Amino acid sequence: MYSNIGYNLKVTDMQAAIGLVQLTRVDEVVARRRHNFWRLYEGLRPLEGDIVLPVVLPKGDPSPFGFPITVDPRIDRNALTAHLERAGIETRMVFGGNILRQPGYRDIERRVHGSLERTDRIMRDTFFVGVYPRLTDEMIDYVIDKVHEFFRAPVLREREGTPLALRR
Fold first, then answer.
1. Tens digit of pLDDT for each residue in 47-58?
2. In this structure, are residues 18 and 24 in contact, taking their beta carbons and an 8 Å threshold?
3. 60's torsion region: left (phi>0), alpha (psi -120 to 50) or beta?
4. Could you report the per-residue pLDDT of 122-167, keeping only the tens digit for each?
5. Are 74 and 87 in contact (CB under 8 A)?
6. 89: exposed, middle or buried (C-beta count within 10 Å: 0-12, 13-18, 19+)?
7. Do strands 51-52 and 157-159 pair parallel, antiparallel, or not at all (unpaired)?
8. Is the pLDDT reported for residue 168 higher than 80?
9. DSSP for the chain, written as a single string
């Protein structure tokens, strides 16, 4: 939630020192993040239809910080993320989502092209799981299994007797 417009562009001395040390292993970190990203991609591909996987353009070679998952509009993202969190898997929402829906940006002067329905959809239906370089293949497989487990449930529930996953 962004209640005010602001910027924090300064790097502390400690952050700069850590960054310099991390630069010595940047190739290793990038390679492992890519490995984890593609392992998640392949493991979740059978769920296309219930989820939308990220698109990587043919000339793209991203160094991802996370793996975005967008659920079909009939699925409640919060039910899925609650299922993952209960399994010990951290999730994150997509930052501010449609920034124009944030209180700090509501009254700014702006020009909007179109309805912004896609940004609203991302804000409502998308979340991230991590691709941290120290995640092992076993950990990534656990994430994949828990996402599949959610979609295998005959009635997707957050609390006993309370169907939540089917939104529409």
1. 999 999 999 999
2. no
3. beta
4. 888 999 999 999 999 999 999 999 999 999 986 554 434 445 555 4
5. no
6. middle
7. unpaired
8. no
9. ---S--------HHHHHHHHHHHTTHHHHHHHHHHHHHHHHHHHGGGBTTEE-----TT-----SEEEEEE-TTB-HHHHHHHHHHTT--EEE-TTSSGGGSGGGTTS-----S--HHHHHHHHHEEEEE--TT--HHHHHHHHHHHHHHHHSSS-EEETTEE-SB--
Tell me which of 155 and 95 has the higher pLDDT: 95
Q: What is the pTM for the complete model shown?
A: 0.81
Number of Cβ within 10 Å of residue 39's Cβ equals 19
Amino acid in position 126: T
CA 151 from chain centre, in angstroms, equals: 18
